[in-house]
Amino acid sequence: MNTRRLDWKRMLAALLVALICAAVFRAWLAPENVTAWLRMASGFCF
């Protein structure tokens, strides 16, 4: 039971993070901010 709940929470959290990252990426996807966004993404996600 506990492991299933933890896995469900992990899957939900991962999905939410992916959606947020996609939204921010689309919002910041501009020719001027591509390099800066890539640096921030690489430093934040990795």
TrEMBL record:
It comes from the Bacteria. This is Uncharacterized protein.
